[in-house]
Every structure is written in C-alpha cells, then in structure tokens.
Amino acid sequence: MGKKNICALLLLAAAAGAAQAELSAVVALEPTSKKDGLMLSRQGMQNGLGKAVGQRVTVTTTEDLADVMRATRSGEYDIFIAPAQVAASALLRGYELVGSTDQAEQYVLVGRQRIGSPEAVKGGKLYLPQQDSIYTYMARGMLNASGLSFKDLGAVQHERYPQAGLTALYLGVSDATVVRTRDWNEWEKQYGGIAKVLATSTPVPGGFSVVVRKDLPAETRAKVATWFSSSGTAMGLKPLAVHAELIEYKKVAELGLFTPTHLPGAKLVTAKDVEQLAARGAVIVDTRTEKEYSAKHIPGAIFVPYREKSLKDVAFEVEKDDFSALEKLDKNKPTVFSCNGAECWKSYKASRVAVSKGFKEVYWFRGGLPEWEASGLTVAKDVLLAKD
Questions:
Q1: pLDDT surpassing 70 at residue 38
Q2: How distant, in Å, are the alpha carbons of 96, 167, 169, 262 from that of 153?
Q3: Are 113 and 196 in contact (CB under 8 A)?
Q4: What positions does the domain Rhodanese occupy (predicted)?
Q5: pLDDT of 17 above 50
Q6: Residue 241: pLDDT band by 50, 70, 90 thresholds?
Q7: 386 in any annotated domain
Q8: CATH of the domain at 49
Q9: Global confidence as pTM
Q10: The dihedral of CA 130, 131, 137, 139: what is its sign?
Q11: Which of 24, 117, 248, 368 is 20 to 30 A off residue 324, Cα-Cα?
C-alpha cells in the first residue's frame, strides 16, 4: 500500500474517531433542592443528548458540590448542569452559558432585632443549610463583604432544611440565618418584629444553569443548546427558557473570590481619589511583586516588599505574612495601599495591618491598578526601584 493511501486511511480514521469522541456532562444537585434532581433521568439524558449531537455522551450525577467546584477549575467535564455557584465558577474558566431553568432570585442575611448590622453578627450563632448549599455560599459571600469570616462567628450550625433557620431565630437558638427573599417575606408577615434583614444579595440565577466548553466545535455547542432548550424537558429538566445575565454569574463568583467591600478603620477610595491624594502628598504603596511593579505602576507609587503566605480570607493569619517593610513608612502621613484590583488581597491585608499599627490615615484602593488604567490615567514603567 502506498504512502498516500496510508495517509488517507489515517486521516479517515482520525475523522471517524473525532466523530465518535465522547462528551462528558455532570449534573450537580443542590443539597437543598433534591426534588429537582429526583425528576431527572440520567440515562435518558445520555441517550437523548447523545442522539442530538451525534456523539456518545456520559452523564454523571453528584451531590458533592465541593468536588464539582474543583472540576470547574480543572475543566473535567464538557457540560455542567448545576446551580449558579458552580456555573459561575465554570464561566470564569473557559465555558459559555447556554441558559438557566429559573428566574433569578435574591437571598437575605437575616438577624435578630438586636443585631444592628452584618458586622454585629461577629461572635454570634449562624444557622445554615448544608455546607455545600447555595445558602452557605451566599452567607459566606455576604459576611465576607462585611469583613467577616465564618471563623469570626461563635458557632455555625449546618442542618438540612433552609427555612428551619427562621425557626431557629424565632426560638432564640440562633442569631442569624440566610434564606431566599421570598421565604423571608412570607415569614416576616407572620412573625414580624422578631428579626430583620441585615444584607441582601445581588440576583442569583435560579434552578439549574447549563454551561458548555467554549473549545467544543460551534456546531456541537449549538446542538447542545438546542437540545436543552427543547428536548431536555422529556428527561425531567425544566426548559432553559431563561438566558440569565452574565453579570449575575459574575457577581456570584465574586462572593467566593473577591475582597470585602469595606474595611473598618480605613477609607475606600477610587482612582480619582487616589489621584487627588497623591497631589496632596499622600504615600501610594504598591503591594504587588517587584516584577509587576517594574512593568507598570501608578506614577509616584513606591514599592514596599510584602510576602504573602496567609489565606485570602478576612480571617487571615497575620503572623504568616511578612509586613516588616511597613515599619519603614511614616505612620503620620496619609497612606494609600494598592495592588491588582478587587481579587487581590495584598492591599486589603496591608491596610488592615497598617490600621492595627496606628497609621493615622489609611486609604484602601480596592480597584488597584486595573481601575487606575480603566479610568484612563497614565502609568509609570521601567522605573528603578527604590532600594534600602
């Protein structure tokens, strides 16, 4: 057989293999909404979706949301059929949204009447449904935004049923809980005066969300979208009648990744504020790496070495980080701490430590260099670092 014929056969075999390539999908069941999961037919989904795309499809069902979240980071599945927090994580990592089955809804952090703010929950008892539920995810995010970690609470009790948290408040055995807004509104009509809303989440896509890998062929992605929008109902899945706003998923993702939105003892500032503070002689401290600083930084900012080893959490362990360079700064001068934006914890931590060390005026530029550049302000590059 000639080389041309062999090459042709190899190409045909490769094409046949590609046509028969297997797609993988996972159905992640929200612990507090198992009823929706019980309606699904895994085998039916495998057969129906496989026929629609012309490929073999393997569907896995799981209640282990912690493992599914890990799978979004490793790209383990081609398709995720999962609650909003899982879809939000996947959308950050090479997936695109097909749609969701339910309208977006909001969650509220509810506390007893004597609790004046989310910060006042510190040291108290928090009731939540199962640890991997959307309720716990939202609670962690709302507390984090207020500068609190679960470590700051006296106790976190995980039980099975979401609305039981309201009963716990009524009985006085819990100080706070997180529930859907609609459940709170119904409960408050009957038991008004016992508790109040301390914080409200942004809209969260409801039901199942479906996301698919962006690197799959466009034709395959289109067939997947069509099947879920029409034929999925025969397998017990609600139709994807709702194409949720991507910003809603972004906000959900931020709850688990981003720094708080305020910092006691320090003042949050915008790029415009930083520009004005610099003009008045404030010290702008860049807490990023030396390489990042050398590449570009806010004009006039100084590089202050800071080695970060603690967790990116409001309850970070200060002793694990090296803040010794802060001792060389003048505590009496207005000081602005900045890094790589809302996902970067270094400026948050440095600001907290500066406040604890008695700096007179501490400003936290949460948006950091990304916000500075987005505001159209110039950056400095390749400037020799100030060395001791």
A1: no
A2: 37, 20, 16, 19
A3: yes
A4: 278-381
A5: no
A6: low
A7: no
A8: 3.40.190.10
A9: 0.69
A10: positive
A11: 368
How far, in Å, are 57, 74, 81, 131, 269 from residue 70 at the CA level?
Answer: 21, 7, 15, 15, 34
Which residue range is the domain that position 246 belongs to?
A: 23-101+206-257
pLDDT given at position 50: 94
185 token code pair: 């509104």
Give CA–CA dist 222/237, Å, rounded: 18
Q: How confident is the model at residue 204 (pLDDT cuts 50, 70, 90)?
A: very high
Residues 113 and 184 placed together within one structural domain of the fold? yes
277, containing H or E segment: helix 271-279
**51 and 111 co-located in one domain:** no
Residues with Cβ < 8 Å from 11, sequence gap 6 or more?
none
Are 325 and 307 in contact by the 8 Å Cβ rule? The answer is: no
What is the mean predicted confidence (pLDDT) over 319-338? 94
Judge if 252 and 278 occupy the same domain. no
From 155, 178, 200, give the residue that closes a domain. Answer: 200
Instruction: Provide the pLDDT for residue 37.
Output: 62
Q: Quick one: what percent of the chain has pLDDT higher than 70?
A: 89
Residues 358, 329, 267: CA angle, nearest 5 degrees: 50
Those residues with Cβ within 8 angstroms of residue 32's Cβ, 6 or more apart along the chain or in another chain = 129, 130, 133, 134, 135, 161, 162
CA distance 361 to 121: 27
- What are the phi and psi torsion angles at 54 (to 5°)? 75, 25
Q: Please give the torsion angle defined by the CA atoms of residues 221, 227, 230 and 233, in that order, rounded to the nearest 10 degrees.
A: -130
